[in-house]
Structure formats: structure tokens, C-alpha cells
Amino acid sequence: MSRLLNGIVAVCPDRGIGRRGELPWHPVRLANEFKHFRRMTSTPSVKDKQNVVIMGRRTWFSIPEKNRPLNNRINIVLSRVLRAPPAGAHHLAPDFNSALKLVDVDLADRADQVWVIGGSSLYKDLMESPGTKRLFVTQILNQFDCDTFLPEISAARYRLLPQFPGVPSELQTENGIQYRFEVYESFEQ
Ligand SMILES: NC(=O)c1ccc[n+]([C@@H]2O[C@H](COP(=O)([O-])OP(=O)(O)OC[C@H]3O[C@@H](n4cnc5c(N)ncnc54)[C@H](OP(=O)(O)O)[C@@H]3O)[C@@H](O)[C@H]2O)c1
């Protein structure tokens, strides 16, 4: 069964998403951008179910300890090395397909939307997986030094939606940083 998969990322003009295990604009906080992330990933479309967030091991450890696991969401961490979920995580998976299988089989009765929240290779797995995908991209208009990057969003496989319910389309400014929210959808069904 192929389900709709969502990804969410905030990205600099050079497609940078991280630096030294933090967000590129660290220590500046983008509180409203973070609220957007929380609202999108936490809000299930079905009552009595929770959304799932899937992330790589480094993204898990980039979340401040007091905020782990991300609340009101089922947290799945990917690692080829770990043999048990890191403290606080709900589930561990050895690869992306195993994580999706976990959602569709073991968690089927309580999991709603699936959200891939990084890092680089997880976004690549998402973009290349079959079925319909939606990418919720915050385009940060200021450039920061980055060492981790988002794979290119292929224009042949994704289109930018003119608008999306609940996602503001106007330019945002926070702490001197400008950004806009975009939503891309894959052509394949
Ligand atoms: N701007 C944003 O929206 C955003 C979002 C997320 C993260 N970030 C930033 O990005 C950086 C972290 O991302 P990252 O790309 O460096 O690392 P990452 O993808 O979060 O973690 C990499 C690790 O995850 C595991 N992993 C990844 N893909 C896997 C797969 N297909 N199967 C099994 N295990 C897999 C491996 O763990 P093992 O080594 O244990 O095998 C790998 O070493 C941080 O700077 C973070 O702040 C930014």
C-alpha cells in the first residue's frame, strides 16, 4: 500500500539545512517558523490518532533533550548502528522502508500522517520513494554557512502549489531573517 508521505524542511538559498549539528541560523530562533513545523507535524487529520515523525539519528540528537521526543507525535529514529531506540524515542528502524512498514503494520491502528523531518539522506529517501509526496519547504532568504544540504527538488517530479490550506503565503520576517512557506507536490500518484 502506498500512502501520502510528507516532508518538512527549512532551507537556505544554497539548500543548506544544517551546520555542526544545529540549524544554520543557530543561535537565532525562528519561533513562528518552529510553530509552523509543530502545527503541521502534530495535527492529525483523524481523531484519536497521532502523526509519525521519521528522522535520522543526528536530527534526533539535534533536538534539545528537554524537547525529545517531539510531543503528540510518534517518534521513529533511523540508524544502521543503534540496536535500541535512543532514550526517549518511541521506535528505531534500520532503514526508510522498515520505518514505513512499521507505520503501516505495527502502528496502523494509531498512526495517521507520516512526516519526514530530516536530515539529508532521509529527505532523499522520501523524494525518491514511490507514491504521492508533499514537501513543506520554508525558503529562508538569508544565507548562512551550512555543512548539510537538502537534495535538489526535481522540477520534473515536483510542482510548487500556488497555495495550501493553513500555510501562509506572505513573506515572513523574524529576528531580521526573511522567509516564505512553500508546498511542493509530486506528480506521481
Ligand atoms: N533545516 C531543517 O529543516 C533541518 C531538519 C532536520 C535536520 N536539520 C539539520 O541537519 C543536520 C542533521 O542531518 P544529517 O543529514 O547530518 O543527519 P541525519 O540524517 O539526521 O542522521 C544521519 C544518521 O541517521 C541514520 N540514517 C540516515 N539515513 C538512514 C537510512 N536510510 N537508514 C538507516 N539509518 C539512516 C544514520 O545513523 P547511524 O550513523 O546511527 O547509522 C546516519 O548516520 C543537523 O545540523 C540538523 O540541525 C535541519
Characterise this structure.
The chain is α/β, with parallel strands linked by helices. The chain has one domain (5-186): Dihydrofolate Reductase, subunit A (3-Layer(aba) Sandwich), CATH 3.40.430. Helix content is 19%, strand content 31%. It has four helices and eleven strands, in the order ββαβαββαβαβββββ. It has helices spanning 31-42, 57-62, 96-104, 120-128, and strands at 5-11, 16-18, 50-56, 73-78, 91-93, 111-116, 133-140, 148-149, 158-160, 172-174, 177-186. The strands form two sheets. Strands 1, 3, 4, 5, 6, 7, 9, 10 and 11 form a nine-stranded mixed beta sheet that branches. A two-stranded antiparallel ribbon has the order 2-8. The longest helix is centred in the N-terminal third of the chain and has 12 residues, at 31-42. It is globular. Residues 9-10, 17-18, 21-23, 55-59, 62, 78-82, 94-96, 117-122, 125, 148 line the site of NADP nicotinamide-adenine-dinucleotide phosphate.
Q: Features of this protein?
A:
189 residues, alpha/beta, Dihydrofolate Reductase, subunit A, nine-stranded mixed beta sheet, two-stranded antiparallel ribbon, globular
CATH superfamily: Dihydrofolate Reductase, subunit A
DSSP summary, beta strand count: 11
CATH topology heading: Dihydrofolate Reductase, subunit A
CATH first level: which class? Alpha Beta
Q: Which molecules other than protein and nucleic acid are bound?
A: NADP nicotinamide-adenine-dinucleotide phosphate
Fraction in helix: 10-25%
Q: Average pLDDT value?
A: 96
